[in-house]
């Protein structure tokens, strides 16, 4: 009897072998759900809620979030996978598969009486060896479009269907290259994602400028301007009712009116400053002025601006102020005193696009845009959401490559190489610990195996071919999913992120070891601790 | 150029959504689609917006954002029903429906296999099924909503914009235990991407559409994690927009225990949440009026408030939320009137009451306003004995002296004011006979009833509609169809009350000092160090002590030794 039951008779518990069985079955269960989604040939899942909400995805992280996981062990694995996504943006499905497989392989030895501690020691040794191999196979890359496309495409093909993946790859790589400055770290926030429920998914495109989800709010305002100065500002152009406007405080209506007029004039002066600037810079030339304000602009001010042919947008996103300055140049103004030409940005064309009740404003043809927008299109909401998730991961994958300055051959090549290396390595280790190393080696094969299964090839067949080929070749060998034959990933430009693999190796072995070492699972309601 | 003074409404929490659902229902049942009717006295554009969906149909939806937990929507798709983007579900398997077949086909053309995973179909309440059927008149049927409503979507007549519904996936909705427990959790939730980015962006989109934004009204559950979420949101609104912010913290009449907590601990958590929220509200809100149908809420719930000619089950969410929604609908009239003078704004409403930092106000309500069906207002007020309304603010009594209050009267037309000169008889002798409008007469009445007080009265002649899905079964038999009292005759059971006159007030009086004092006393007794979940979610003990001290200072604003 477990000691907890002395303290709390209602507690449920499971011990030793039973506890292990619980953890392993949970890990296997999760693995079974996710395995079909691995790799570019994995299937998509269409999730339909009780109310009819749709979600289509093959991204491991999204799936885990959508599944309502009750099992404590499963939720622990899911959390490891989410952490993987948070730090790298890729490799979530692999994490789940690998943890499951590590437990499965360990189980074989455990049922034969091996102590879990020895297995975990083996895991630990195997992990450090695997990391060595990882460093050995990494390929330093030059940052150019071709290399980045390889890595982005490998990642994106695991998230969306191939035709779309190719479109998104191009878009993501161009976006990153556009905002990248020398060797400074890239701020992914400078790529704005804007969605439009319109046309088809493959119409998703990169806009070298900014797209905003709002438009002009005055019927007479120009809807399209060319050769435009862009004034970005954070100055209120609306008459704000001041705090003391209660009915109790004014003796007469006139007194109140007077107060209101004074306030109004104050705002008018600001509007006049913009108009004066416009007259000074644009009158007599081809140039025009666009005002993009983070604060509000009331109808009276809009009216005055419209009369001058100025296009004005209100309530811009805070982050867009920063992006606009990067895309068009100029600085975001906090007051209109001493406005000068140098404060303004420039855009070749600014125009409005109306879609149902939504308006979009495009700021394009900027001179040297250091902030760009990916315009996501799709016929329905679930497609847009899917693309958005994919693009986020694609951008992260490219960014990872920029940070690592190297990549790892993909298509299961790394796993096969580690398998072979570990098999060699285990013979140099004395004692039962080598069994743990063997389990680790076997477990890694789950990745190429499932890649093969999902593409319709025989798992054993593939593994035998790959391991043999790998032994004969100095270069890593991966699986060509279209033929089922071994190939050199480098030739096909199939790359994985170094960071992703490293993170997977680290987190999986830690989580699996933790789960193996659990010898008692208990569940007890909290009793009230008074006093 | 329109001069609508828009308001954005925010609802946080399940019970807040119950109230919200009733409120929007009440408003929509007063819509008139007949172009020949005189335009309504209420400007619905203040709270509603016009839009166009993708099929180019015009929509008219509340300018609203609401937050609830996963699992609370039942049949309602997150995007709502007006703009598509969801599949119509029936009892049969989803694989066989045309929508799904089409999606699968499209994807297969792109060489991608799809596996369909479906949750069991969420059944619709009968009321919702009938709403879709144009033949059935919902007013004719008896749905017994009081007993079979599971969640607020069951009786929701109003339809929401796709932007409106925000679901928190990290916590699950359950009627047995609440997982979203502490103020600190709520604050943490606000800092996630879902709120800091997406939710704030949705607010911005609403605000961008507004020409003359008056401000925000925030309705939220004050006893659980939403207290933190909502107050964090209000802080953001003040930073970003600096407009009037009217908060309505609400208390559910059913105390659902928190996860891993027994009853005393759940009670303590509620107290701490309230205290922290009230402290934050005293900084961030322009005005806040706590609402509940129980007379005490800090720890154990007190007795249900008694309203004349009204009976309701004390712990019924559907019925109690209707009472609170009716109050909100009435009190908010002041800033929703068409062609109103500018003091009739949200800022004016809050500004009248919050002098000397008295940002907490009490709610008082009369549902129905007890007037006999052939009586004139002048006689009704003359013969009135006892308090005219019931307090709906927990731990607070109706103030009588030194009161600053704003009232809204609904459903008393000018011809019910007094008799014309030739028939006046006795009425001629009353001072009130010289009053020519409903609000004037109330002003006079309040001047006599309350010593040294200031009152603002707004009046709308249209009574509040109480058609289904409003729980009109709450009204006593002595009420007529139009909601006036008729003690001698009884209403036939098949006859329903279709509208009622109401009177709502928001009061600032020294009584509220007691409200704060009881809260402070309860909160002080809780040992915060024993509630590990606050620390785990990032609240330090010192912060709590500080908050309580501030709360005590806030209470001092209600001492009336040196005022007026």
Automatic annotation (TrEMBL), chain A:
Keyword Cytoplasm: yes
Subcellular location: Cytoplasm
Keywords: ATP-binding, Chaperone, Cytoplasm, Nucleotide-binding
GO molecular function, one term: ATP hydrolysis activity
Cross-referenced InterPro entries: Chap_CCT_zeta, Chaperone_TCP-1, Chaperonin_TCP-1_CS, Cpn60/GroEL/TCP-1, GroEL-like_apical_dom_sf, GROEL-like_equatorial_sf, TCP-1-like_intermed_sf, TCP-1_chaperonin
Pfam families to which the protein is assigned, alphabetical: Cpn60_TCP1 (PF00118)
Keyword Nucleus: no
Highest taxon in the source lineage: Eukaryota
Main localisation: cytoplasm
Gene Ontology, cellular component aspect: cytoplasm
Similarity field: Belongs to the TCP-1 chaperonin family.
Protein name: T-complex protein 1 subunit zeta
Organism this protein belongs to: Bactrocera dorsalis (Oriental fruit fly)
UniProtKB/TrEMBL annotation, chain B:
Record carries keyword Mitochondrion: yes
Location (main, coarse): mitochondrion
Gene3D superfamilies: Tubulin/FtsZ, GTPase domain (3.40.50.1440)
GO term, biological process aspect, one: mitochondrion organization
Superkingdom in the source lineage: Eukaryota
InterPro entries in alphabetical order: DML1/Misato, DML1/Misato_tubulin, Misato_II_tubulin-like, Tubulin/FtsZ_GTPase_sf
Keyword entries, A-Z: Mitochondrion
Residue span(s) of domain DML1/Misato tubulin: 146-337
Boundaries of every Misato Segment II tubulin-like domain copy: 5-132
Localization per Swiss-Prot or TrEMBL: Mitochondrion
SUPFAM superfamilies, alphabetized: Tubulin nucleotide-binding domain-like
Transmembrane feature ranges: none
A cellular-component GO term for this protein: mitochondrion
CDD domains in the record: misato (cd06060)
Keyword check for Nucleotidyltransferase: no
Family statement: Belongs to the misato family.
Protein name per UniProt: Protein misato
Origin species: Bactrocera dorsalis
Gene this protein is translated from: LOC105222026
């Amino acid at each position: 009897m477990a000691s907890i039951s002395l303290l709390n008779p209602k507690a449920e518990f499971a011990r030793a072998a039973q506890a292990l069985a619980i953890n392993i079955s949970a890990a296997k269960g999760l693995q079974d759900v996710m395995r079909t989604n691995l790799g570019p040939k994995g299937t998509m899942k269409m999730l339909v809620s009780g109310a009819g909400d749709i979600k289509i995805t093959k991204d491991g992280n999204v799936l885990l979030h959508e599944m309502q996981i009750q099992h404590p062990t499963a939720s622990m694995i899911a959390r490891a996978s989410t952490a993987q996504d948070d730090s790298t943006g890729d490799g979530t499905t692999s994490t789940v598969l690998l943890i499951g497989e590590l437990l499965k392989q360990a189980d074989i030895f455990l049922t034969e009486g091996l102590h879990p501690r020895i297995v975990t020691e083996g895991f630990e040794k195997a992990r450090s060896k695997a990391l060595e191999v990882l460093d050995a196979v990494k390929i330093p890359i030059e940052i150019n479009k071709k290399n980045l496309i390889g890595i982005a495409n490998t990642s994106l093909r695991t998230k969306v269907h191939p035709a779309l993946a190719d479109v998104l790859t191009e878009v993501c790589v161009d976006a990153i290259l556009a905002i990248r400055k020398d060797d400074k770290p890239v701020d992914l926030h400078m790529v704005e994602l804007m969605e439009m429920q319109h046309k088809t998914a493959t119409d998703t495109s990169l806009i070298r400028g900014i797209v905003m989800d709002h438009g002009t709010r005055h019927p007479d305002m120009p809807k399209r301007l060319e050769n435009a100065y862009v004034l970005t500002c954070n100055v209120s152009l609306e008459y704000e009712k001041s705090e003391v406007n209660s009915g109790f405080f004014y003796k007469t209506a006139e007194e109140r009116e007077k107060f209101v007029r004074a306030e109004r004039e104050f705002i008018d002066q600001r509007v006049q400053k913009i108009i004066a600037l416009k007259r000074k810079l644009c009158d007599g030339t081809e140039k025009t002025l666009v005002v993009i304000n983070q604060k509000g602009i009331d109808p009276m001010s809009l009216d005055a601006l419209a009369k001058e042919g100025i296009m004005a947008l209100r309530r811009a996103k805070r982050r867009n102020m920063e992006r606009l300055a990067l895309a068009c140049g100029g600085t975001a103004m906090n007051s209109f005193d001493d406005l000068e030409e140098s404060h303004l940005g420039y855009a070749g064309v600014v125009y409005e696009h109306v879609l149902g009740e939504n308006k979009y404003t495009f700021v394009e043809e900027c001179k040297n845009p250091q902030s760009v927008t990916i315009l996501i299109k799709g016929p329905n909401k679930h497609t847009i959401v899917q693309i958005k998730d994919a693009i986020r991961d694609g951008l992260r994958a490219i960014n990872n490559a920029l940070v690592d300055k190297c990549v790892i051959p993909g298509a299961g090549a790394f796993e096969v190489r580690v398998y072979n290396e570990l098999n060699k390595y285990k013979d140099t280790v004395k004692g039962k610990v080598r069994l743990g190393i063997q389990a680790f080696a076997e477990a890694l094969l789950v990745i190429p195996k499932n890649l093969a299964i999902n593409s319709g090839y025989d798992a054993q067949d593939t593994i035998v071919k790959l391991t043999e080929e790998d032994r004969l070749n100095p270069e890593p060998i991966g699986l060509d999913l279209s033929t089922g034959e071994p190939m050199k990933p480098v030739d096909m430009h199939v790359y994985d992120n170094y960071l992703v693999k490293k993170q997977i190796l680290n987190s999986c072995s830690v989580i699996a070891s933790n789960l193996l070492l659990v010898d008692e699972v208990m569940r007890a309601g909290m009793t009230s601790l008074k006093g | 150029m329109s001069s609508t003074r828009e308001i954005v409404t925010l609802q946080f929490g399940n019970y807040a959504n119950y109230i919200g659902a009733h409120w929007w229902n009440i408003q929509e049942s007063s819509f008139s689609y007949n172009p020949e009717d005189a335009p309504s006295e209420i400007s619905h554009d203040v709270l509603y917006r016009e839009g166009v969906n993708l099929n180019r149909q015009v929509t008219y939806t509340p300018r609203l954002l609401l937050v609830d937990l996963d699992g609370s929507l039942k049949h309602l798709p997150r995007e709502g029903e007006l703009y598509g983007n969801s599949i119509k579900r029936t009892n049969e398997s989803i694989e066989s429906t045309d929508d799904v077949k089409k999606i699968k086909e499209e994807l297969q053309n792109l060489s991608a296999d799809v596996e369909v995973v479906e949750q069991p179909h969420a059944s619709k309440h009968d009321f919702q099924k009938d709403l879709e059927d144009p033949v059935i008149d919902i007013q004719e049927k008896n749905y017994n909503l009081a007993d079979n409503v599971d969640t607020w979507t069951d009786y929701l007549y109003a339809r929401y914009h796709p932007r409106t519904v925000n679901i928190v996936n990290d916590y699950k909705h359950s009627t047995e235990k609440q997982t979203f427990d502490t103020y600190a959790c709520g604050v943490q939730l606000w800092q996630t991407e879902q709120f800091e980015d997406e939710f704030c962006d949705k607010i911005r989109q609403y605000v961008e559409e507004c020409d003359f934004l008056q401000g925000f009204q925030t309705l939220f559950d004050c006893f659980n994690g939403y207290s933190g979420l909502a107050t964090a949101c209000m802080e953001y609104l003040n930073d970003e927009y600096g407009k009037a912010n009217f908060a309505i913290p609400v208390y559910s009449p059913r105390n659902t225990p928190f996860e891993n907590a027994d009853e005393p601990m759940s009670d303590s958590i509620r107290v701490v949440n309230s205290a922290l929220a009230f402290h934050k509200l005293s900084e961030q809100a322009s005005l806040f009026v706590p609402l509940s149908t129980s007379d005490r809420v800090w720890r154990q719930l007190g007795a249900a408030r008694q309203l004349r000619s009204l009976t309701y089950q004390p712990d019924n969410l559907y019925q109690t939320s209707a009472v609170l929604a009716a109050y909100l609908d009435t009190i908010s009239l002041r800033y929703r009137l068409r062609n109103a003078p500018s003091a009739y704004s949200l800022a004016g409403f809050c500004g009248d009451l919050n002098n000397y930092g008295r940002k907490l106000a009490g709610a008082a309500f009369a549902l129905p306003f007890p007037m006999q069906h052939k009586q004139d207002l002048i006689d009704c007020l003359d013969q009135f004995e006892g308090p005219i309304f019931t307090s709906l603010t927990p731990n607070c009594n109706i103030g009588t002296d030194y009161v600053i209050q704003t009232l809204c009267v609904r459903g008393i037309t000018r011809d019910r004011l007094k008799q014309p000169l030739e028939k006046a008889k006795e009425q001629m002798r009353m001072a009130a006979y010289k009053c020519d409008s409903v609000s004037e007469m109330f002003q006079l009445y309040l001047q006599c009833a309350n010593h040294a007080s200031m009152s603002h009265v707004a009046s709308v002649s249209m009574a509040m509609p109480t058609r289904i899905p409003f729980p009109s079964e709450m009204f006593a038999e002595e009420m007529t169809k139009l909601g006036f009292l008729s003690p001698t005759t009884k209403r036939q059971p098949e006859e329903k009350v279709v509208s009622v006159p109401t009177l709502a007030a928001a009061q600032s009086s020294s009584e509220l000092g007691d409200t704060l004092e009881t809260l402070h006393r309860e909160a002080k007794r809780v040992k915060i160090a024993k509630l590990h979940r606050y620390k785990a979610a990032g609240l330090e003990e010192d912060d709590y002590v500080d908050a309580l001290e501030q709360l005590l200072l806030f209470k001092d604003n209600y001492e009336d030794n040196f005022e007026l």
